[in-house]
Amino acid sequence: MVDREHLLTSQQMATFVAAGYLRFDALVPDEINRAAMREMETGIRGAPAGTPLAQAYPATSTIGRILDLPEIQGIITSLVGPGPLFDHHAIHVRQADEDKAQALHADAIIDTRVPSFDIQLMYYPHDVPLEMGGTLVVPGSHLRRINESDIGRYQNLRGQVPMVCKAGTMLALHHGIWHCGRQNKTDRIRYMFKIRLNPVVRQVRLWNTDDLDSPEVSRQLGKGFPWYEAASGRLEIVNRSKLWRYLTGDDTFDTGYWLTRLENVPSTLYRT
Amino acid sequence: MVSKQRQQVLMLYLSNSALDSSVIGWSLYDGAGRDAHTTGDSDTPPYATGLDALKDGWRLLQMSQMIPPYPGDEYGTSFLKHECIFERLESIDG
Question: How far, in Å, CA of A248 to CA of A173, rounded?
């Protein structure tokens, strides 16, 4: 059971629903980061896909210790609930002076599940300055249905976010987020550890909902991003609102008046 | 010395279907081999609008067709909708 203080807030969840990710800077202590670096250099053993996460790593392993941090448990529980399944993990390495970035992509294959979602955690065990690249994330791209690297021709989008961060930073991402590994212009190897988790429960009100009525929730859900087309950007807000309805169990929720207007189909027959 | 020409291709993604609308995304491929562009290498678009690219000498090759939403998927979002592909010929020695 995760302490309520470590669960995400409604404002954080709304940010996740709008942007498709949350970042937690320098969350993992340096002592663990150093141990993780050593393990990444030699390889980290995973588990078969579908293994309960709690059984995927020995508690004494570095990744096991990271996943057991109360803050990480709070993030996982808030987004995919208790007892998630291990999907897979990967150690991503960008070699020194690697001047070609990955093609922009979303992981796995096109995912038509609505509205449940997997999450991925990306963990950065060392500092990542801009010249080292970092993962490139496209905020608000997670609800766009594309198949893996079919979007590879998009080199740059307004408002894209290069993950420049301190050691111990953790990203929690919706499975659909567009991202790639940027080029590494330094003479050092860049490491990143990624793990994907599947929910086993309905993702309804799993976080600390004390601030559910905060105006910041609607503000986050109505937020645009610089790369959105004028018209499709409005559809993004509609799709987020539908996801928020699922997450909260509130079928009347709306951001602005977008869904409510569409749902107004009067049945009253007017006679003079 | 014989002068040859190579194609540079510029892709601009616009905010709506008008060529003079704002650039929201961009890609550049240089057949002349002078520059190598890759994902996430720039935060600033080369032009503010598609029209600005024309004014700078780029030739428009293609714009996205305007395809109506598929019935039942009117609220779905996917690829960027307003893609414009331009070319410019660059001389190389050889």
Answer: 19
CA torsion, points A239, A225, B84, B78, in degrees to nearest 10? -20
Is residue A256 assigned to a domain? no
Helix (H, G, I), strand (E, B) or coil at A151: helix
Summarised one tens digit per residue, pLDDT across range A67-111 is 999 999 999 999 999 999 999 999 999 999 999 999 999 999 999
pTM, 2 dp? 0.96
CB contact under 8 A, A156 and B39: yes
Specify if A223 maps to a domain: no
Interface predicted TM-score (ipTM): 0.96
Q: Could you tell me if residue A48 is inside a domain?
A: yes
Residues 68-107 of A with CB under 8 A from B: 99-104
Confirm or reject contact between A258 and chain B (CB < 8 A). Answer: no
Give the domain range for residue A34: 4-198
The token pair that represents A106 in the structure block: 């979303």
Give the number of domains in chain A: 1
Q: Where are the domains of chain B?
A: 3-93
Give me the phi and psi of B24, to 5 degrees please.
-115, -15
